[in-house]
């Protein structure tokens, strides 16, 4: 029998603590062992209760959630789920938390929300199961802010498609900061709230040599450009109308997600076939696994992040079990692996 996930709830609002506790206690696989209203109370509770997982409010008095998270990750690393307002300011703070090492983030509910914290229980249980650790310096986002691509890199006529979920912020930073300014056109679906994707794209753009943007409907795929699917009500696909472009399409959730990695990968199969590289990174569930298999069956090269370096070995595990992974690679080598599969020394194959 799987032991219950033992959770400490940290939030300065008694109302919010009560709501989080009620949501978590409704799941038989979770035991809320305590609560705290600030960092000092939380520190004492951690020592006394030794929880498996912490939910942590970003905005707290005295010491905010980011400062407290840094101390946790340095002194007593454990899975921490950040609870944030779904605002631009909240998005910036949450992205910083994910880079520091937070397991995942959830948005605080807004008035009229029929299912407040709808995915929180599943995230907590995944966090308790994970072998969460601070990434080593070679794989961490902070250490990956240098551009190490070969100076003679020449892109082949390929499209790179990447899917990620829980743990994807630091994973994408580690991968994309290895890309040169003339990388092949790259499309990414990262499971993330709609208010966060624009801030994340801006953050990546500051860190990476290529240009990074939140994708817009009709964006033409170009060398040196990375397109991040906007969170929200539409899927991102690649369509070939005279030239490959981003298409933001309507449709219900696929594998519980919108945008869905499977939808992106399936569109790349139709447009690029074997002239593509598919990459599946850390994440809960199975979104993208079947699509990666279809990419491989179409002749594309495919990469899966290995178990040891995943925050959650879910999506890559299912992709591997289905036979969709050609190359299983640790996070700190995925950038170089992608470049080796998309370079050419043949002049006729180079993209102007």
UniProtKB/TrEMBL annotation:
Q: Which domain of life is it from?
A: Bacteria
Q: Where are residues bearing 4-aspartylphosphate located in the sequence?
A: 57
Chain intervals with Polar residues compositional bias: 139-152
CDD domains in the record: CheB_Rec (cd16432), REC_CheB-like (cd17541)
Return the InterPro entries for the record: CheB-like, CheB_C, CheY-like_superfamily, Sig_transdc_resp-reg_Me-estase, Sig_transdc_resp-reg_receiver
Q: Which family does it belong to?
A: Belongs to the CheB family.
Write down what this protein is called.
Answer: Protein-glutamate methylesterase/protein-glutamine glutaminase
| UniProt organism field | Hoeflea phototrophica (strain DSM 17068 / NCIMB 14078 / DFL-43)
């Amino acid at each position: 029998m799987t032991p219950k996930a033992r959770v400490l709830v940290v939030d300065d609002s008694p109302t919010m603590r009560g709501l989080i506790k009620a949501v978590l206690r409704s799941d038989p696989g979770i035991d809320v062992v305590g609560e705290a209203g600030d960092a000092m109370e939380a520190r004492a509770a951690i020592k006394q209760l030794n929880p498996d997982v912490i939910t942590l409010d970003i905005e707290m008095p005295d010491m905010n959630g980011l400062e407290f998270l840094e101390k946790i990750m340095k002194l007593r690393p454990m899975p921490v789920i950040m609870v944030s307002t779904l605002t631009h300011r909240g998005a910036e703070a949450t992205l910083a938390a994910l880079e520091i090492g937070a397991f995942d983030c959830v948005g605080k509910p807004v008035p009229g929300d029929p299912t407040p914290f709808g995915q929180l229980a599943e995230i907590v249980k995944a966090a308790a199961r994970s072998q969460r650790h601070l990434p080593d310096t070679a794989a961490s986002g902070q250490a990956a802010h240098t551009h190490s691509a070969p100076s003679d890199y020449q892109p082949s006529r390929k499209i790179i498609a990447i899917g990620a979920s829980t743990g994807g912020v630091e994973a994408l930073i580690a991968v994309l900061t290895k890309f040169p300014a003339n990388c092949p056109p790259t499309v990414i679906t990262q499971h993330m709230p709609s208010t966060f994707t624009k801030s994340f794209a801006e953050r990546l753009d500051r860190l990476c040599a290529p240009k990074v943007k939140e994708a817009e409907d009709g964006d033409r795929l170009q060398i040196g450009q990375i397109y991040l699917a906007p969170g929200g009500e539409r899927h991102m696909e690649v369509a070939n109308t005279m030239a490959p472009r981003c298409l933001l399409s309507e449709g219900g959730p696929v594998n519980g997600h919108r945008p869905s990695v499977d939808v992106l990968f399936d569109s790349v199969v139709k447009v690029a076939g074997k002239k593509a590289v598919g990459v599946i990174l850390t994440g809960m569930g199975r979104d993208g696994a079947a699509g990666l298999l279809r990419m491989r069956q179409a002749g594309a090269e495919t990469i899966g992040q290995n178990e040891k370096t995943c925050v959650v070995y879910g999506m890559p595990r299912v992709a591997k079990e289905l036979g969709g992974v050609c190359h299983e690679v640790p996070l700190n080598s995925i950038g170089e692996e992608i470049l080796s599969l998309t370079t050419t020394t043949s002049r006729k194959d180079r993209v102007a």
